[in-house]
Amino acid sequence: MTSVDQASRPASSGLATLVRQPLVVALALIAALLFLGETLSPGFASGEQILRLLIVAALMGIVAAGQNLVIIGGREGIDLSVGGVVSLSAIVAGNVMAGENGGILPAVAACIATGALFGFFNGFGVTFLRIPPLVMTLGMLGVLQGLLVVIRQGIPSGRAAPALSDFVTQSFLFSLPGIIWLWAAIGVFMAFLLRRTVFGYRIFAIGSNEHAAYMAGVPVKLMRISLFVLSGVFAAIAGICLLGYSGSSFANVGEQYMLPSIIAVVFGGTPLSGGKGGYTGTMAGAVLLVILQSILTTINIDDSGRQMVFGATLLVLMLFYGRGRSMRG
Amino acid sequence: MSDTTVIAGSAPRSFRRFIERFPFLPALVILVVLLALNGLFEPNSLSYRAIRGLISTYLALILLSVAQTYVIYAADLDLSVGAILSLVNVGIIMLMQHLGGSPGGVLLACGAGILIGLACGIVNGIVVAVLRLQAIVATFATSILFTGLALYVLPVAGTPAPTVYWRTYGGTFFGFPFVFYVAVAIAIVLFLIARTRLITQLLSVGDDQQAAYQTGLPVTLIRLKGYALCGVFAALAALCVTGDTASGDPLVGGEMTLNSVAAVVLGGTALSGGVGSVTGSVFGALIIGLISSLVFFVGTPSEWQNLVQGLAILLALMVGVLVGRRAKS
């Protein structure tokens, strides 16, 4: 739709095209918010503070990576179960490693397997049973929440290994924590996957026209299942990092990522209708969302005011992004 | 439209026509099975007293699911219904307190509560239909906004409702519980609403928005009205919650939003819009209620209840979607 819009418009200047790029919009908003934050509370945009924001943004961004793939894959693709997978993964990781560095590798393996398994269930339901993704992942979220109650009764919440905590919170390489490097690596991986591989092209193909992709020989069902598996795996990785960030896993810690991960994708310029978008914008979207939340915690208003401003600001920011097509269009 | 299917054999065809006319039939079957199972495991659960308890507890979810149905008819979604419910709940609690808890004051507060719901619905309608933001993320943002307002009105749960309010809701008049009268009144209202032009318009917008526009329907206004109607029913749900819990809680509705979506889908209404019934959503909400009581009656250990409930709802969602599809394909 957008491409048609742009084609029908009179030739626009380079600047106008630039302003319409979601990534540019997000980066400009990030700069504006950092400036606003620094004005409101001096020291907000200091290096140390920005590093802390980036760690939180990385957690959100890793969840959003999987969400992004599912959304680009189309057919109303969305994964509401990521919040549950993040929480479950944090608990599994905490219990498998039990505070020991030696347990990190088995913990990572266990978490990725768990995330992949639930992603597979989602994908199976969506493709073979043809349940709409919103319904399937919503039902799965209910199952995961129930499972978390069971697990929490039976076993202690588990602790992060020191090496994992250091990886997430302490300087790792060039005075940046490991999680930032991990996020950057995921960013490169996603860009490569989406723009340079057959798999990536096929994601856009099934997202923009599933039937045409099927006719062209794309294994649509296998593709879609893989997208949900990847979403589960990314959520699981975020769960491990979250454990490292907080030290121990606690109740429904992942739920705060469920809908915000979708908003990060939208702020990154990927429309929920699928077939378009990319991850670089989503990374900027995650940073934008985290900075916004952080500014709201620095200004001196109570929780209710903070929520109201947050909700209203999200709405205003959404106006900068893919608004639906006008009926006349 | 079913007359056009000429080729189909007689038995599947009549089944198909039947489901086409009554999309809530699978839900009705599931509901009857659940009632039977409940009666089998706990004979008392079919008693007059138990049914009364079931209705007074689940009337709120029923109304919230009805609210959700009207926007889903038009292929929209409202993730803020729970937040609207919370806001109206705390709003009327505080109003009743200010007005002194006299019967006149209570009625005035209820009227104001419905207006609050209407206002919230109109805000959603403006954001989604007029400004054309994506419904999932935009109503999530308004839900944050409404929750903030609710927290501003009443920061912590606890202010009690006036005695006259919850006594009436839980009371008995002329030999019948008050909630039965409410249920009958709601049934009549729903019946009347189902016959209005707005419902047909919402369904045609949901079926094919572009076609509806080209036929000359004011699509934006229709979607706006759908959200407004949704807000009003979310407010009615809040009146029931307030009668049931007899107190104000700024977060009471948060958990109910996703259940309302699940109830609508259980009831055979398509998330893609254009097909469905409010009757189905009522059944869907009752199914969710009966599943949780059945899980309790079969003696599931308390820590396993959520998991079993989650699995049962996921299973019911799958069965509902599959049967509904078989009928349509």
- Which percent bin holds the helix content of chain A? over 70%
Specify the overall morphology of chain B.
globular
Class of chain B, according to the CATH hierarchy?
Mainly Alpha
Uncertain runs of chain B with pLDDT below 50, 5 residues or more?
A: 1-10
Sequence of secondary-structure elements of chain B:
HHHHHHHEEHHHHHHH
CATH topology of chain A: ABC transporter involved in vitamin B12 uptake, BtuC
SS strand fraction of chain B: under 5%
Helix content of chain B: over 70%
CATH architecture of chain A: Orthogonal Bundle
Provide the domain count of chain A: 1
List its traits:
heterodimer; A: 329 residues; 15 helices; globular; B: 329 residues; ABC transporter involved in vitamin B12 uptake, BtuC; two-stranded antiparallel ribbon; 2 strands; 75% helix; disordered N terminus
Describe this structure in words.
The complex is a heterodimer of chains A (329) and B (329). Chain A has 329 residues and is mostly helical. Helices cover 72% and strands 2% of the residues of chain A. Chain A has a two-stranded antiparallel ribbon with strand order 1-2. In chain A, a hairpin with a 2-residue loop joins strand 1 and strand 2 (176-177). Residues 1-12 of chain A have low confidence and may be disordered. Chain B has a single domain (2-328), classed as ABC transporter involved in vitamin B12 uptake, BtuC. Chain B has 14 helices and 2 strands. Chain B has a two-stranded antiparallel ribbon with strand order 1-2. Chain B is globular, with a radius of gyration of 20 Å. The two termini of chain B are 14 Å apart. The interface between A and B is large, with 52 and 51 residues.
Summarize, please.
Chain A is mainly α. Chain A has helices spanning 2-8, 14-20, 22-40, 47-72, 82-97, 104-127, 133-154, 162-169, 178-196, 198-208, 210-215, 220-246, 258-267, 279-298, 303-318, and strands spanning 171-173, 176-177. Helix content of chain B is 75%, strand content 1%.
